[in-house]
Recover the amino acids of this structure.
């Protein structure tokens, strides 16, 4: 029987790796993928607690998070594609202006 | 089990690290897919098969494929971006970015780690659910009753062989009262403990009483089987037999060999296939007490078969078998359990998320829509020659060099459409 803390520690490590990815990478798509990694880490924590408490509410919240992540990825990648058309670059250091 | 968890955890962390430091964006996406597959495996270890399926199908199968499409579309794998450890980037880049981010990461690790390890997550007490009970009317003498728990009306007009739905009671003592139409009361003060489900049977012909039996509503491990118990309300010991056909005594199958009077039998699991259930005298298997003709097994349910006396219209009594079925709890984390919660308690967020997805789809289409020049409108037009060529030549070189019957260009009306 694996204790819940093991899952929470693993979730925390993945979350921190995702945070580092968001802060350090400069490709907009890589930043996006690091955000997805953070969301996956929280899903893991929620499922671990759902198993500990014997309640399916945790599973349902994971379901909602996955759905919202799908919607967010669709819109975010559409934004990146639209920006790439004009700026021809997705280096976030160059995307610091709100215009264009 | 712990070794398996450690292996999968190491795979997830290593793949996440490789995703961060990889130079090629396609490699990063593939490493993220490996991480998601590892997390799906961890979902399986957490008794969440539905989440594992959704993770592979939606996350690894749709979202990451969308990422790969966009990476390929933009040619992003070529663009330099992995200057993670070099400081020769654009002047806007903060020089101490990498050390600052690593410090933040380490401090998060220590703060959250200390909080988790001191918290002792697993030692926390989980509150037990309140007791649940239902009332089964199995007394032929009291007629139609209204059922009260304390002063709260549970059911109105409960007839013989009907059972109320499960209601949640307070732990401890509860006064259960059955009030007949004549105003008489059959009541008892019963004690219930947390995390139990019980059935209260009102039975008896001379002196009706209330007896409490436990009901097992936990999930049934095998699919398409029902859980059955028999309560013997008669005075002879009974046996539950599955009669294959009426003509051959050799294919009788004894399901419950002896159920003593006034007791509930143990639970048996019966598969969902055609059965003919007979309740026979345990001492004398030839003497049939009750037949349950054309009875269909209720799969995924817990069924209580009450055997007792019923008063018929003409005043005589006979023994009947009353099956009362209730859904057993579906398997934890399976699609059915998730579906129950989703379509009852969480219906509103479910519908709102559907609207959100629709809005996201429309938004993605609008954002990527490109305004193209409308050239199709000119298909119908034909290029018109303003003046015949001979006249143009005549105007340039002089009128006399052109004869009247010079070859003419095809007229404009027969020239093919040129479009753009």
């Amino acid at each position: 029987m694996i204790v819940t803390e093991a899952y929470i520690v693993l979730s925390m490590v993945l979350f921190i790796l995702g945070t580092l990815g968001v802060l350090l990478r400069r490709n907009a798509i890589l930043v996006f993928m690091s955000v997805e990694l953070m969301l996956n880490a929280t899903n893991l924590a929620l499922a671990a607690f759902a198993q500990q408490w014997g309640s399916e509410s945790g599973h349902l919240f994971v379901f909602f998070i996955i759905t919202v992540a799908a919607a967010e990825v669709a819109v975010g990648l559409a934004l990146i594609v639209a920006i790439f058309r004009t700026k021809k670059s997705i280096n976030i250091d160059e995307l610091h202006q709100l215009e264009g | 089990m712990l070794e398996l968890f450690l292996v999968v955890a190491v795979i997830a962390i290593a793949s996440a690290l490789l995703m961060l430091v990889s130079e090629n964006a396609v490699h990063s996406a593939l490493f993220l897919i490996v991480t998601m597959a590892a997390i799906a495996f961890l979902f399986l270890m957490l008794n969440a098969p539905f989440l594992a399926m959704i993770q592979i199908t939606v996350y690894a199968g749709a979202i990451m494929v969308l990422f790969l499409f966009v990476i390929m579309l933009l040619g992003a794998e070529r663009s330099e971006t992995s200057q993670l450890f070099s400081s020769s980037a654009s002047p806007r880049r903060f020089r101490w970015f990498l050390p600052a981010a690593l410090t933040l990461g380490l401090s998060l690790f220590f703060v959250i780690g200390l909080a988790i390890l001191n918290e002792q997550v697993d030692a926390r007490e989980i509150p037990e659910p309140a007791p649940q009970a239902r009332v089964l009317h199995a007394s032929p003498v009291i007629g139609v009753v209204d059922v009260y728990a304390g002063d709260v009306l549970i059911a109105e007009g409960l007839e013989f062989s009907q059972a109320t739905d499960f209601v949640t009671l307070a732990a401890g003592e509860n006064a259960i009262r059955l009030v007949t139409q004549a105003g008489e009361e059959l009541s008892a003060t019963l004690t219930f403990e947390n995390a139990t489900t019980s059935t209260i049977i009102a039975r008896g012909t001379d002196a009706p009483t209330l007896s409490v039996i436990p009901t097992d509503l936990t999930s049934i491990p095998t699919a398409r089987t029902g859980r059955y118990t028999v309560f013997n309300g008669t005075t002879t010991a009974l046996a539950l037999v599955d009669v294959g056909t009426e003509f051959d005594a050799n294919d009788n199958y004894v399901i419950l060999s002896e159920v003593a009077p006034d007791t509930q039998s143990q639970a048996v699991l019966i598969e969902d296939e055609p059965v003919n259930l007979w309740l026979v005298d345990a001492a004398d298997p030839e003497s049939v007490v009750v037949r349950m003709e054309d009875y269909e097994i209720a799969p995924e349910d817990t069924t209580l078969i009450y055997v007792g006396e019923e008063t018929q219209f003409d005043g005589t009594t006979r023994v009947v078998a009353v099956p009362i079925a209730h859904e057993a709890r579906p398997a934890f984390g399976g699609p059915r359990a998730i579906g129950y919660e989703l379509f009852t308690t969480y219906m509103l967020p479910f519908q709102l998320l559907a609207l959100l997805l629709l809005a996201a789809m429309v938004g993605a289409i609008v954002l990527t829509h490109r305004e193209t020049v409308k050239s199709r409108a000119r298909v119908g037009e034909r290029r018109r020659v303003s003046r015949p060529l001979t006249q143009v030549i005549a105007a340039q070189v002089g009128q006399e060099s052109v004869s009247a019957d010079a070859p003419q260009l095809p007229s404009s009306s027969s020239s093919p459409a040129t479009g753009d």
Summary: Residues 11 and 42 of chain A are 6 Å apart (CA to CA). Chain A is about 80% helix and 0% strand. Chain A has one domain: 4-94. The domain at 4-94 of chain A is CATH 1.10.287.3510 (Helix Hairpins).
